[in-house]
Design brief:
Blueprint lengths: L1 H28 L3 H19 L5 H21 L10 H13 L3 H25 L9 H7 L2 H71 L6 H29 L16 H10 L4 E5 L8 H21 L5 E8 L2 E8 L15 H11 L3 E6 L5 E8 L6
Parallel strand pairs: 1-2
Antiparallel strand pairs: 2-3, 3-5, 4-5
Helix pairs in contact: 1-2, 2-3, 3-4, 3-5, 4-7, 7-8, 9-10, 10-11
Length: 393
């Protein structure tokens, strides 16, 4: 709507600047009735022609020249003169022809047509006017002589616009090429990281699972507490192996990121808690909602938060009691994990120190908040809140 109003405003201003000067100067040239009739009819036709100049530039130029020629010839035949400013609309039409006349064939045809009309008008003027004062001569030639400059200015403006458009297109092509190269570089880096992870992590994890399964096969030779530990180790290893395979596939080709196995969610928190208990850490799990009512992305994020919090508890506060609470509060999923002080010395140097950072990024991506910090009794507390209505599956 703004562009339309701008176009109408431009046309209105152009009509005033083009036609009003001739009306204001006409009384000083010839105030007779035939002069005013000729000027009025010509300007009425000229207004329509100028309004159509954008759609049909060549036709508008020929029609405008024809209307001007007819007004000059008729008024001369009646013994009247028009103001020299009646040539202003012709300059505008010539500029428009140079600026918008994309077809050289139509431009040349319009110029030839105007030449034919000019010769015909000159002949009619000679035939219908006896007095030399009303025959076209040097005055008409002087008014028409600068007109080609209007076409040159219009053509120059069109050329400049074409150069600007070409420059913008080249810039857009360069941006697309740069984005494509960045995507290729990112894909190469993902492939390299996937290869490194496969060579380093996958090999060690597979070896760990093999050893755990070997111990399970000889479970009769192990004490009861060791069998439970080995079962938990084998289950965790198998789960981690499956998730690692999905991650490597996503890194190698994001288009093939469909996981081979379902992503874990809140429905598996009981299994997660059992695995923590198997390591000697008591867990109290309270879940006051149905996992199916939570969007998929939030279910996965909530599971990962609890998983990472339990891992941190095992690492830094082994044997400490842990309380896990998952509930829906004011349209948000609230996951709280609180562990008490360590029952024995924690593992030194375990992990890479990015667990809390990863949790914060995951929760923040869903528009949630993560709060972590020590408790007054020497434990640690993790609280994650994520909106339920803004997340998608």
């Amino acid at each position: 709507m703004g562009d339309r109003w701008h176009g109408w405003g431009t046309d209105a201003g152009l009509l005033v600047l083009t036609f009003l000067p001739a009306v204001l100067s006409q009384p000083y040239v010839d105030a007779s009735g035939p002069a005013w009739v000729s000027l009025t009819v010509y300007e009425a036709v000229g207004v329509v022609v100028l309004l159509l100049r954008r759609r049909v530039p060549a036709t508008a130029f020929v029609a405008g020249f024809g209307a001007l020629l007819a007004a000059l010839v008729w008024s001369a035949g009646e013994g009247a003169k028009l103001s020299p400013l009646v040539f202003l609309p012709l300059a505008v039409l010539l500029y428009n022809l140079g600026h918008r006349g994309a077809s050289w064939r139509r431009t040349v045809s319009a110029v030839l047509g105007v030449a034919v009309l000019g010769v015909a008008g000159l002949w009619l003027n000679r035939m219908t006017t006896d007095s030399s004062d009303f025959r076209g001569g040097v005055d008409v030639l002087a008014a028409l002589a600068p007109m080609p400059l209007a076409w040159v200015m219009g053509y120059a403006a069109r050329t400049r616009h074409a150069l600007l458009a070409a420059a913008e297109q080249r810039a857009a092509d360069a941006r697309r090429a740069q984005a494509l190269e960045a995507a290729r570089a990112a894909q190469r880096e993902r492939t390299r990281i996937a290869g490194e992870m496969h060579d380093v992590v996958a090999h060690s994890l597979t070896l760990l699972v093999v050893h755990a399964e070997t111990l399970r096969a000889r479970g009769g030779e192990l004490p009861d507490w060791a069998r439970a530990q080995v079962d938990g180790l084998a289950a965790a290893g198998r789960q981690s192996s499956g998730e690692l395979r999905d991650l490597l596939r996503m890194l190698r080709d994001p288009a093939d990121a469909v996981p081979l196995r379902p992503a874990p969610d809140l429905a598996e928190l009981d299994t997660l808690a059992d695995g923590h208990r198997a390591t000697g850490g008591p867990v109290e799990l309270t879940m006051d909602l149905a996992p199916e009512a939570v969007p998929g992305a939030v279910r996965l994020a909530g599971y990962r938060v609890v998983q990472e919090a339990l891992v941190n508890a095992r690492r830094h506060a082994p044997g400490a009691p842990v309380r896990v609470t998952v509930a829906s509060v004011a349209g948000q999923l609230r996951c709280e994990v609180v562990n008490g002080p360590a029952a024995r010395r924690g593992t030194t140097g375990a992990g890479i120190g990015l667990g809390l950072v990863s949790m914060n990024h995951r929760v923040g991506a869903l528009g949630g908040d993560l709060t972590t910090g020590p408790t007054g009794d020497g434990g640690f507390r993790v609280v994650a809140t994520m909106p339920l209505e803004c997340a998608g599956d």
